[in-house]
Amino acid sequence: MPATAQAGETIKIRTAIQHPMITGHTDAGPNVAPRKIIHTFAVAYLDAEVLRIDVAPGIAANPFFAFNLRARSSGDVVFTWIDDTGEVIVETRQLTVT
Amino acid sequence: MGGLRVLCIAIVLIHSHTIGAFAADGPLRVEAQPLRSASEFLSPALRAEQADPIRNRGMLWVEQGERLFTQPPPGGAPSCATCHARAETSMRGVAARLPAVDAASGQLVNLEGRVNECRIVRQSLPPLDYETDELLALTAYLTALSNGEPLAVSIDGPASAFYAYGQQLWNERQGQLNVACTQCHDQSVGRKLRGDTISSAVPTGYPAYRLEWQTLGSLHRRLRACQLGVRAQLFELGSREYLALELYLKSRARRHPIDAPALRR
């Protein structure tokens, strides 16, 4: 994502994360490997949630999400990924609006 | 007299058949058909994805590799960067020259082997297994540092025996389908196999993100996939067979620039 934007400008944000996205339907020897996917991806901007995606097991490994965001004022964009084991990955990027 | 003539004709027939069957193995045919980078066989959409550092998922391992290289491992051992400072310049071209024969042991060592040698000798850490995210990340990072560098492996001196072994494996029929590497990757390049186009087997993009795998994988894993395809006895990842094939492939594709991590189907 760009570090700066003009007020009212629509910026494009693209994210990719390393995750095996095990569907729960694939073999692991004689047993089926238990499902382990990122089930939620959420984005907050200026302390308000602007995007929430419920991710299904059909999504490929290392999921890539792209979306638009309208810049209003300077602040943090907080990205959150939550997976089936309860692991929460949070990344924060500063957006400076001029 | 008549009997002798028949015998002579039979010998000539067998001899010409032998030449026909092995002509494609000689160097002349290979030079006549210039090798094409595997990226050339991708669709324009996949090529664009490969060139985009966010959409090329292999770059996730490159970033992880840079962290592993620069941060000291837990337990007080020095980091890779302690010895190899300014990796952008000091490690540039290293991946292009491997595999090479290790002077001390006389064994052929590839990048995975070099990383593990450093871990054991310099860092007192256990070696990493093939296809672990850590080893893939380190090799992807180090290979990407040589992007644009032409492959320049040595096949002289102590490496010549390994090269000859790799070439022998390349030309040897194997598996239930009884097919040699050369029959697809020299003689049938550009033709279709199971919905994909047969490439020249130029290994410049490895470790590569293969869509079928949904993850990054080593060149040895890719060689193993071909062996599975022809229903052959699989070699071990990191075995002398795959190392010799890796040397042969990289020598065959010398002067082709490295473009790792690549996207492959």
Describe the structure.
The complex is a heterodimer of chains A (98) and B (265). With 98 residues, chain A is mainly beta. Chain A has one domain (4-97): Immunoglobulins (Immunoglobulin-like). Helices cover 0% and strands 55% of the residues of chain A. Chain A contains no helices and nine strands. In chain A, the strands form three sheets. A five-stranded mixed β-sheet of chain A has the order 1-9-8-5-6, with no helix packed on it. A two-stranded antiparallel ribbon of chain A has the order 2-7. A two-stranded antiparallel sheet of chain A has the order 3-4. Chain A is elongated and about 60 Å long. The model of chain A has no long low-confidence stretch (mean pLDDT 91). Chain B has helices spanning 2-22, 27-32, 44-51, 59-70, 80-83, 87-90, 94-97, 111-121, 133-144, 160-171, 181-185, 219-229, 240-252, and strands at residues 100-101, 108-109, 192-193, 196-197, 208-210, 215-217, 263-264. By secondary structure, chain B is mainly alpha-helical. Chain B has two domains: 30-52 and 151-264, Orthogonal Bundle (Cytochrome Bc1 Complex, Chain D, domain 2); 59-144, Cytochrome Bc1 Complex, Chain D, domain 2 (Orthogonal Bundle). At the A-B interface, strand 2 of A face helix 4 of B.
By CATH, the architecture of chain A is named Sandwich
Encode the helix/strand succession of chain A as letters. Answer: EEEEEEEEE
DSSP helix fraction of chain A: under 10%
Strand content of chain A: over 45%
Physical arrangement of strands within the biggest beta sheet of chain B: 6-5-7
Question: Hey, which two chains have the biggest interface?
Answer: A-B, 11 and 10 residues
Residue windows where pLDDT falls under 50 for at least 5 positions of chain B: 1-32
Unreliable spans of chain A: none
Domains counted in the coordinates of chain A: how many? 1
What CATH first level of chain A would be assigned? Mainly Beta
- Overall geometry of chain B comes to globular
